[in-house]
Amino acid sequence: MSETIKKFMYLNRRAPYGTIYAWESLEVVLIGAAFDQDVSLAFIGDGVYQLLEGQDTSESDMKNFSTTYKALGDYDVTKLYVEKESLEERGLTLDDLMPLTWEDEDDDWAEKDSIRLVSRAELADVLDDQDIVYSF
Amino acid sequence: MKFAIQVNEGPYQHQATDSAYQFAKAALDAGHEIMRVFFYHDGVNNGTNLTTPPQDDRNIVNRWSELGKAHDLDLVVCVAAAQRRGIVDEGEMQRNGKDAQNIADGFRISGLGQLIEAGIQSERLMVFGD
């Protein structure tokens, strides 16, 4: 669709259901996937709650969009950075998050983890390396 | 410099659209290019012509329309966000069986691809919001 390839970062900072930012961010990611850019997502602060396993919105009558994260691999969105300190500050570990994977067609369709646990300092370097940062 | 602007918050409730407007104006005055202003989330509410603020306050919607007209700006309201929040143009009115439209002068409703394209084609994407 475009000859230019830029590094696109979607920075997710908010919990999933208190505001619409998380869901409308995901809508941009899904549309953006068609543009063949070098896409990453990062989850910091309350944004790490977006990836929690076992989300249940049945009592609040809100749309549970958590399964959409599991489909990201099919859209070739395979780099999901999660900030370690943000998890720790909220009493969470990687085990509390949904297992998110993608299939690597260059490696006999091996299933690989999409989530990359990084420190705050490491994530700063990742952000510094981006061309575009969409902040939600 | 070729800028694109993303506005994520509605008028009056939040300063984001004021800051975006002031930035756009200053950038244009300094000879820079604004290739697109994309209104997302509650930012789509910047594009309704039903806004009627008190006369002793700024008219945020008209201000965007006027700046758009003066500089031929591409003011784009996200269709998905607009449908949720009731921002409607002629096409959306017919498509969704509504009996009114309210898109302000100089704005157009289009898809999220316009935001991605703005990121690709601009040299800097400025995001205004929390």
TrEMBL record, chain A:
Stretches assigned to coiled coil: none
Organism domain of life: Bacteria
Gene Ontology MF terms: transferase activity
One Pfam family hit: DsrE
Entry-linked PANTHER family: PROTEIN TUSC
Family, similarity comment: Belongs to the DsrF/TusC family.
Protein name: Sulfurtransferase complex subunit TusC
Organism the protein comes from: endosymbiont of Escarpia spicata
Automatic annotation (TrEMBL), chain B:
Keywords for this protein: Cytoplasm, Transferase
GO BP annotations listed: tRNA wobble position uridine thiolation
Compartments, record wording: Cytoplasm
Matching InterPro entries: DsrEFH-like (IPR027396), Sulphur_relay_DsrE/F-like (IPR003787), Sulphur_relay_TusD/DsrE (IPR017463)
GO cellular component: a single term: sulfurtransferase complex
Main location: cytoplasm
Molecular function terms, GO-annotated: sulfur carrier activity; sulfurtransferase activity
Family label: Belongs to the DsrE/TusD family.
NCBIfam families recorded: PRK00207.1, sulf_tusD_dsrE
The name this protein goes by in its record: Sulfurtransferase complex subunit TusD
